[in-house]
Amino acid sequence: MSKKAKNPAILTIRREDQKRAIASPLRMELIGLFVDREALSVAEIAERMGRPASAIHYHVGVLLEAGLLVRSGERREGRRREALYRPAADLFRMEHSRKSKEPGTPAPVRTMAAAFRMAEREMTAALSDPTVKASGPHRNILGARMHARLSKKDLAELNRHLRAIEKMLTDIAKNPKPSAGDQFVSLTLALLPLRNREVRS
User: Fold this and answer.
1) Gap between the Cα atoms of 115 and 148, Å rounded
2) Which residues of the chain have pLDDT under 50?
């Protein structure tokens, strides 16, 4: 039986080892498996990812070392006991300083690139899913790229809506009440300032 432990709501990723750990698409996918808040063993993680447990052990170790996964008890499996793991927080955020001396591509860029590669794979799979709905109140697929010139007031309003979405998803993840009709979904967003975009009349 796994131990019940309360996660912090948000863990801000600041350390370089944490940034390197989360920038891997496979490790990002691994952390995303814990949607139902239950602790998982390496064997269960491997089964859900369709990979051998021997390959998953390494990535679990990297996430443990970086403090992004934590041990959450153990249980008996046959004659042996297996460790159980869970994410160290309900939500991860990355902090990046403009003064960072990090060589090469900055960690936030690597992390978002990994997230969008995952989104590409997920969208490819979703397009062949008979449960896909592209319109209506139960729409579960959307791909869009939009631009707008926003005032400070507009930007504050946009961020208010984004915080509401973040809070909704985080609250559901923290206190799941699953039912038969539920569907697991993924939402990947990037809000970015665009430079040198002049208004032309």
Assistant:
1) 23
2) 1-5, 201
